[in-house]
């Protein structure tokens, strides 16, 4: 539904060049909720602004719903008619809502419909339908100042849906909201995704958001996508930074002569007593150093860090057994393993930790 090829954006300011996007290939499938994560300055907002061509990419292509937007004429807000029309099919939700305080809630939602040239009666009907959809049917006549943050964002979402978009872009739509309100707004996005078949590309700093609503996710760093895939795929990828962030499992080995393994469970394997079977089959003592279990997109997934006694060579067979069970296996400490000296994921810097994040 959204494809970017080799998308590049270079900003020139005061004689300096800043490469905000450095060859981004993004692929968002129809009907999915896709999360983009990354540190401040990674290029997330630039990416989203290039997807709807609010920002003109320096190079590369953007295809949304089968149309190559980068081939349509016009620049920025003064875009040509064709690009403007294509853009009405792409809704955008902002962190700070961007509602007009002088207008009522209903009039805010009607704004894009005015631009589309609908009659007063059509606008009103559509706006009231949309407010009903986001659970604000009774707030049509009030002004934004009389609403809570969560309600304001619901108005922002209703407005974004006015042009019957196939795609919704959201740049940190929930980061100004408290955790409970965040959850309810995310639930709304998830419901809209399901009910309307809406494809959603969202930027967030919060791993909770990815866990709660995303089907797929990508990690950005320095203007590039460094990891991408469906959430189950990422969880099953050894060494995945996103997986480690989604399910941080701590725990230090009790000695240097122990083998430490991170296991990712998902789907059916999440409910099987793999660890006790492993202990019985090989009569070894297994210590669980850390574990996290959660539900991601309705599926149980989890990670566990276990410690096996002895060096790596003594544990090759048990580790092979775990792999055979369809589990994601990452060896984080392997004393004595050839070429694996110092292999240790424990000290890896968290990719996304940001000041003020929860
Ligand atoms: N209009 C602009 N002019 C010059 N440089 C810009 C402009 N917009 C963004 N940049 C630069 O491009 C890089 C990427 O910025 P961007 O806003 O996309 O990051 P981000 O991942 O959204 O960060 P945050 O999490 O803080 O919102 C940064 O180095 C930023 O300073
Ligand atoms: Mg940003």
Strand content: 25-35%
> For this structure, what is the CATH homologous superfamily of the largest domain?
P-loop containing nucleotide triphosphate hydrolases
What is the CATH first-level class name of the largest domain?
A: Alpha Beta
Ligands (ions, cofactors included)? adenosine-5'-triphosphate, magnesium ion
Query: How many independent structural domains?
Result: 2
Based on the coordinates given, report the CATH architecture of the largest domain.
Answer: 3-Layer(aba) Sandwich
- Secondary-structure element series: EEEHEEHEHHHEHEHEEHHEHEEHE
Structural class category:
alpha/beta
Compose a concise summary of this entry.
With 358 residues, this protein is an alpha/beta fold. It has helices spanning 44-51, 81-88, 105-115, 120-133, 149-160, 179-196, 207-213, 231-235, 241-246, 274-282, 316-324; strands at residues 2-13, 16-28, 33-38, 59-64, 67-68, 90-93, 167-171, 199-203, 216-221, 224-230, 259-266, 287-296, 299-308, 328-333.
């Amino acid at each position: 539904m959204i494809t970017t090829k080799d998308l590049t954006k270079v900003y020139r300011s005061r004689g300096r060049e800043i490469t905000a996007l450095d060859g981004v290939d993004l692929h968002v499938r129809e009907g999915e909720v896709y999360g983009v994560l990354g540190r401040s300055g990674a290029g997330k907002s630039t990416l989203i602004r290039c997807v709807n061509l609010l920002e003109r990419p320096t190079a590369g292509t953007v295809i949304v719903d089968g149309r190559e937007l980068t081939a349509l004429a016009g620049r920025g807000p003064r875009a040509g008619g064709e690009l403007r029309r294509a853009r009405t099919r792409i809704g955008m939700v902002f962190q700070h809502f961007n509602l007009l305080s002088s207008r009522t809630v209903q009039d805010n939602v009607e704004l894009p419909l005015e631009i589309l040239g609908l009659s007063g009666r059509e606008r009103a009907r559509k706006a009231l339908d949309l407010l009903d959809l986001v659970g604000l049917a009774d707030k049509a006549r009030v002004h934004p100042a009389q609403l809570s943050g969560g309600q304001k964002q619901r108005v922002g979402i209703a407005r974004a849906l006015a042009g019957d978009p196939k795609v919704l872009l959201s740049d940190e739509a929930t980061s100004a909201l408290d955790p409970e309100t965040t959850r309810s707004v995310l639930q709304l996005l998830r419901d809209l995704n399901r009910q309307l078949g809406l494809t959603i590309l969202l930027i967030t700093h919060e791993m909770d958001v990815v866990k709660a609503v995303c089907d797929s996710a990508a990690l950005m760093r320095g203007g590039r996508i460094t990891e991408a895939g469906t959430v189950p795929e990422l969880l099953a990828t050894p060494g995945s930074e996103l997986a480690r962030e989604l399910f941080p499992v701590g725990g230090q080995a009790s000695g240097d002569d122990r083998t430490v393994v991170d296991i990712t469970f998902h789907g059916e394997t999440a409910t099987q007593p793999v660890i006790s079977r492993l202990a019985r089959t090989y009569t070894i003592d297994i210590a669980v150093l850390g574990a996290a279990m959660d539900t991601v997109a309705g599926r149980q997934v989890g990670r566990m860090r276990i410690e096996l006694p002895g060096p790596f060579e003594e544990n090759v067979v048990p580790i092979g057994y775990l792999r055979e069970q369809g589990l994601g296996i990452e060896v984080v400490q392997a004393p004595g393993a050839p070429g694996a000296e110092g292999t240790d994921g424990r000290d890896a810097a968290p990719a996304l930790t940001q000041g003020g994040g929860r």
